[in-house]
Design brief:
Strand content: under 5%
Helix content: over 70%
Largest sheet: none
Distance between the termini: 49 Å
Number of helices: 9
Length: 258
Amino acid sequence: MGKKITNLLLEFARLHSFLMRFFRELVSPPYEFKEIIRQCYEVGWKSFPLISLTGFIVGFVFTKQSRPSLEDFGATSWLPALISIAIVRALAPLVTALIASGKVGSQIGAELSSMNVTEQIDAMEVSGTNPFKFLIVSRIIATTIMIPILCFYIAAIGLFGGYLSIIANDQLSLLSFYTQVFDKIGMIDVFAMVLRAVVFGFTLGFVSCYSGYYSSKGTEGVGKAANSAVVASMFIIFIEELLIVLLLGFVTPLITGV
């Protein structure tokens, strides 16, 4: 038991050191703008097909499943408002983060771990390149930037999927649908979505880079790093979602005066 506690404390110390080093490298030159742009392309553009399909399905299925409950109360006209609140406040950032955790997180963890195994990171240090700034900082910045952008995109696609589900049963113009959607979305909802997306994006990049950078040697370490990047990032994202919901539940009434 004592050894397990010691190992846990050492792990927390290494996490703290990793985090502090990230912030030091973040503000100190030189800045790897080309690598940041390349990583944004890897995280964002290459995730578009999967994100598009997932966002459409989430919006369509959520609307389809919500209709019977609202029909019992004769409130199907509230479907656009319900969809907008659910997707913008919670579903868009959470689904985006979970999909990116599976695709991007495993990729980052496996990539950094394989570079660690083949000693490419050591070779970068010998050649005078700062591997932490080039490999870690650029990837964390990329996920922190691109997850909010993908979140807005998946919200738009999800709302469109919800609209197609509605018009399969009701006569509703696209203009009327989006009028009802935006009528129920306030700045606090957009802020909540952006807050979630930024926190989730940073968590995804940080956990994935940490798992890959400190992976064990050998080919088995690559698989473990990819697996731990996905599992740990998803677990932490769910914990953060719970904390953000509690925080916004406390702060929102103070802001709106309700």
